DNA sequence: ACCTGAACACCGTTCAAGT
DNA sequence: ACCTGAACACCGTTCAAGT
C-alpha cells in the first residue's frame, strides 16, 4: 500500500514534467520510455495511457518548454517587445539545452509553437509592418526567434578533446588545431574582447547572441522604415 | 566466388559514400549499421574494421557532404565571395537534407568543417575585417554560414497533417489552424509574393534564404565600413 | 591473425494473458 | 474493462569461437 501511495496518480502533465526534468538532468539520450517510467515508479506500458507514443511525448515536452517563455509585453514598440521576448526564449532554452535539437527533429509545429509564432507576428503587424515584410522577417529570424543560438562555430572550441586528460580551461584552440587552422585560431584569440580580466575564457555567448539579434533587428528596422516590399531586395 | 567478386573490396571511403546514399534515399532514420552493411553486401561487423563506431561514421558522412561545397572564388570581394559560397553550401545541403540535423547533433567539429570555417575567416580577414569583427560575424552567421536554412517557421506549413487524406497542394494553412492562429494565416496568405502565377504555392525557400542572408551581409558590411569594434554595439 | 556469428544490453511498441 | 508482463522487431557493440 505504501508503494501505491508513494506518488500522485499518473497524468499526462506529470509525465511531461518528469520527462523534461529527466532530459534536463541526464540528457535527451537518457530519455527512454523505460527510464521515464522508472523515474515515475511505474511500469513502462502505463505511460501509453497518457501519451500515444514517444513522438507525442516529445511534442508535449516541447510545449512545456515553449510555455515557459514570457508573453510579449504590450507596452513597448515592436522592436523592444520582440527583442525582450527572444531573450526570454533564450533564457528558457538555456535551462533546457536539449530542446533546440528536439524541436528541429520534430517535423510538425506544436500548438504552443504556433501560438508563440502567431503572437510574434501580431507584434510585427501592430508595429505597422506589411504582411509581406512580416512574412519575410519571420523567415529571416528563423529559429532564432525561439531563442536558438545555433552556434555552429561553438563546435570548434570542442574540437580538441580527442586525447585523454582535459586540463585547465578551454583557452583558445589546442595547439595542433591552431596550427592547421591558423585563421580560426586568430579570431579565437580575439575572443577575450572588451572584458579585460577574462583571458582565454572562450566566447561570451550572451554577447554573441545579442550581437546577431541586434544585427537582424537593426536591418529589419531599416527595411521597415524604408517601406520595403518584395519587389525590392534588402540593401 | 561470384559473391565475393560482386563488389569492390570494402574501404572507409566506400562505406561513407554508401552511408550518404542510404541517408539521402531512405532518410537518416533508416541508417543503421545493419542496414548499411546489407546495402554493401557485407556482414555488419565488417564495418567496424573501417569505422570505430556509428558516431565516427556520422562524422565521416558530414565530411563527405562538407567536401562537396565549392571552394571560395578568390577573384571577388569578401561579400560576393562569402555570399556565393554560402549559397553553394545551401545547394549541397538540399541534396543531403539529413545533414543539418546530423551536424548539429554531433558535439565535435569535424576536420572538414574546421577547414571550411577557417577559409571563410580567411575571406573576411582578406577583406580587411579586424579579427574582432570577424569573430562576431562568424557567430552571427552561425550555422547559416554552412547553408542551414533553419526554417522553424516552415514547420507551420506541416502543422495540419493530423487527419487522414492529404489532398492538393499545401495552400496557405488548413482552416482549423488558420482560425486559431489568424495572424499566422494572414502572413501565410502573403506567401505568394511577386510571382503572380503561383497561388497558394507556399513559400519560396530560395527567396527567403537569400532575404535573410542579404539582411545579415548588408548589416555586416555597414559595421565593417563604420570600423565597428567591440566597445560599440551594432546599430 | 583475421573474420564473424552469436550474444549482450538496450530500444519502442504490440499483444495476449491475467485480474 | 483495465492493467501489465512477456514478446517482437529492432538497435549498437562486445566477445569468443571458428577459420
TrEMBL record, chains A, B:
Pfam family, one: TetR_N
Keywords associated with the record: DNA-binding, Transcription, Transcription regulation
Domain of life of the source: Bacteria
MF terms in GO: DNA-binding transcription factor activity; transcription cis-regulatory region binding
Record bears the keyword Ubl conjugation: no
A GO biological-process term: negative regulation of DNA-templated transcription
Feature: DNA-binding region: 32-51
Keyword Transcription applies: yes
Positions of the HTH tetR-type domain: 9-69
Protein name: Transcriptional regulator, TetR family
Biological source species: Micromonospora citrea
Lineage, uppermost ranks: Bacteria, Bacillati, Actinomycetota, Actinomycetes, Micromonosporales
